[in-house]
Structures are given as C-alpha cells and as structure tokens.
Amino acid sequence: MVKAFSDILNLFWSNSDNKSITILKNFGLKLLNWIHEYVPGLFCDFCTANAKSTEIHNPKVMFYGDIKKHEIYFLILLSKLGTDVLYINTMAKDEFEDVDKHSRHSYVYKLPYTQPLEEFPRFKLQQKSNIIKSNTNTVIPPINYTPLETKKAENFAEKIHTAEKVEKTKKSLEELAQLSNSTVMIRTYDKNGKILGSGSGVVISNNGLIVTNYHVIEKGFYFGVIFEGMEENSQYETHTVINRNPDKDLALIKLPIKTNAIAISRGEDIARGQKVVAIGSPLGLMNTFSEGIISGFRKSQKCDFIQTTAPMSPGSSGGALLNMYGELIGVASAGFIDGQNINLAVPSKYVLDMLEEKSTVIGMELMEMYSSFSYNNIRINFDGLFGRSIVGCYNILLYQSRTDRTNLLELVKNRDFSNTLVNYYINIISNLMSKHSIQVYELQLGAGNYIFTYSYRKGKITNKGWEYINL
C-alpha cells in the first residue's frame, strides 16, 4: 500500500506543470480519503493465505462514463494494489494518455466503431430472501448492528485548537499569509446543482470542521469546499451541517477528511486600534489577504460585532479575521458598501459557545463514528444535517453522501437491507439521545427523494417508513 501510494504521488508530481507542495498535499489527502472509502470493501474477502485457491479472485473494479484526472490516478493505484480495473467510455478523449503518458500502467483498447454511452444497466436485488449471496457463492446473513455502548466515543473538543494563555510571539505578515491553507472557499448549490452563491470558511479542527456564516449556507442543498491550491473542479462536496445559529450568523459544516486548523482566540484581549488581518475569497478571488485594525465594537439586539478596517467584499463572508498571533478572533460577516473600510466580524467567543452546544457534540459524534453503514460487501456513507426545530424537537437527517456512488435507492427496495439499515440507526440514535437526555427527536434517512422517518416523543414512537418527498 505504502509503495503504491508513493508511486502515484511521484507520477502526479512528474505530470504536474505547476509543481506546488500544497497541491500535492491536497491530492494526497483526496487519495487517502478514497482509499479509506473504497479499498476495505474491495479486499474484505481476500486472504493471501488462500491466494492459490481457484475460488479466490483479484477484486474487480469497472469505471463507466466520464472520468477526472484524479480518478485516473486512483484507478492506477487500485491496479497497483492488485485490483483488475476496466474503464469504459466510448466518447471520451484520451485522458489516460495525459496521465499514463508511456502506457506503463494501462492499455487502451479501441473498438472499430463507437456510439454514445447509455445509462449503466441496473440490476434488481432479491426482494423476498432473507439472505444475500456474495460473489464467492457463499451465503452471508445480514450483519448485526453494533450497539452504541460498544464503541468508544472520541472527544471531538480535543481536536479544536483554542489559543492558550501562554507567552506568544507575533507573526510576520508572510507567516500569517501561510494560514490561507486553513481558509476555504465555499460554494452553495441547490438540489439541481446550480450555484446559488459563494463565500468563505475557516477550518477550526483537524477533523474537517469548518465555521462560516449562516447566510452563506442558508439556502443550500449541498456545498462545495475548495482549499488553497486545489483545482475548482476537484472540490470536496458535502451536505453536512453540524450546527447553525441564524442570530449570530454562524454555521458549522464538516468534511470527512483530516485538516490543518487555525487556533481560536477566546477574545479576552482584543482592543480598539489592534492590528488584524483578514483572509477570505471576495468576488471569488481565492484567499485574498488584507490587513487593517480593529476600529470599534458594535452591538445589535442579537449579536455583538467587531468593526475592522481590513478590506472585505461580497464573498469574504465566513472568512477569517486574525490577530497578529495567527488566532481567529472573528468571522467576517458584513460590510457597508457605501462606507469606506467599515466591515464587521462575528466575535470568536460565539464560535466557542457553539462548539460547546449539545447539538454540535451530538452531530460531531455521529459523523465521526456512525456516518458509514456496512452490509455484507456494501458500504454506504452518509452526510448529516442536525439541529432543533421551533417546537424543541431534535432533528437528525442522514443523507447519502455526495461522494458515495452506491445505488442506495435500489438497495432500500431489498427488505433485509432496508430493515438492517433503519434498525442500525434507530438503535444508534436511541442510545445517543438517551445519553444526552433528549426525549423528543426525529431521525430521517435520505436516499434521493425517498426519506425514511422515525420519531420519538416521550415514549411515543411513530414510524412512517420510506416516503417520496419533493425536496
């Protein structure tokens, strides 16, 4: 695995026109994410001790349709691990030749004639059987779900970087500019994939937690996240909103990756006249760096604000306002178009308050430990949307991840799969709600336009099953 991963990084580096360590790191992180997501399922039934058995075969992967360069590198990686890989696309340009320039890792077979690709054939699962046959012709019963108590929860708060009360050294502007690696551009999309707008975000934990403005993600169905040096068409995509606070104009979204975080200041030592820097993506200009001072403090009915002269424009919303130690003291929120250098940021104290809320703790625990569901050789990944309704009901929606290509809509038609899936999450959520003394909650599982709904209200259970909903 290590050698194959290293070989692919070297191949990517040798093919790169713009040799950037940041781009290489982002590419490596994407590869590791795909390895974590797909490789265990491919090799779960493969045992080297039985390698000579006629019943054991190398894992098989077929990629059908349009492909991106990063996906080509991943297919080559799978091949190096021993997987037989077939890529089919009758109308594509020679993308493989751009990556595997000397045909050392692949062989192109061209048919005498081509025609446009049709939709990939769909196969129905057995509906009545209580068992599913694997590709090795052995009968495998549905897996048993693991109760919540048997898994050890991680304290996600330990992954949040808060500024410590120790003697600190101020950073140069050049050093502060390097923190652009921990600020991102966020694109908001509707259910049809249309871009509704864009803003900025700040990475605040090493497990993919990002703070931004509520108004940046308010109307979005899913979000695209772009890091420094990343190609725009290679963005990370997620539905996950861990928590939101419209009154403070803050929201927390999460990616299933490891990240470098910016430390959060407790805001106890900020003062008028203090030098600050802002990092954001105004007007779509990725990670623009500017400096200024704190020019005042403003209060509204629901929120305090830091006023700064650091330039901000539309698209800066959700970006970082940093002190000279490189600590987050505010989240860029608003600017006055008719005023010169009059910009507002939400103080970081509200971010720290949000991280301590029960909704955040529950959402992070679910996404860190239970965002994946396994059934025989099938693995489904979920994004999550969490929060409380006006009537005090705690809502949990686990929606199939943007990166998961499994046909979940077809799978839930299988009674065994559907029952195992919903019972797994009903058990998980029931234990988690009991742990946090929540007596009113609603769990939903989403696959396309089909939603499973299960609600609990002080002992009363309502199970609506799977329903079609016009999202």
TrEMBL record:
<dbReference type="Pfam" id="PF14266">
    <property type="entry name" value="YceG_bac"/>
</dbReference>
<protein>
    <submittedName>
        <fullName>Serine protease HhoA</fullName>
    </submittedName>
</protein>
<dbReference type="InterPro" id="IPR009003">
    <property type="entry name" value="Peptidase_S1_PA"/>
</dbReference>
<dbReference type="Pfam" id="PF13365">
    <property type="entry name" value="Trypsin_2"/>
</dbReference>
<feature type="domain" description="Putative component of 'biosynthetic module'">
    <location>
        <begin position="3"/>
        <end position="129"/>
    </location>
</feature>
<dbReference type="InterPro" id="IPR001940">
    <property type="entry name" value="Peptidase_S1C"/>
</dbReference>
<dbReference type="InterPro" id="IPR051201">
    <property type="entry name" value="Chloro_Bact_Ser_Proteases"/>
</dbReference>
<keyword id="KW-0645">Protease</keyword>
<dbReference type="GO" id="GO:0004252">
    <property type="term" value="F:serine-type endopeptidase activity"/>
</dbReference>
<keyword id="KW-0378">Hydrolase</keyword>
<dbReference type="InterPro" id="IPR025647">
    <property type="entry name" value="YceG_bac"/>
</dbReference>
<dbReference type="GO" id="GO:0006508">
    <property type="term" value="P:proteolysis"/>
</dbReference>
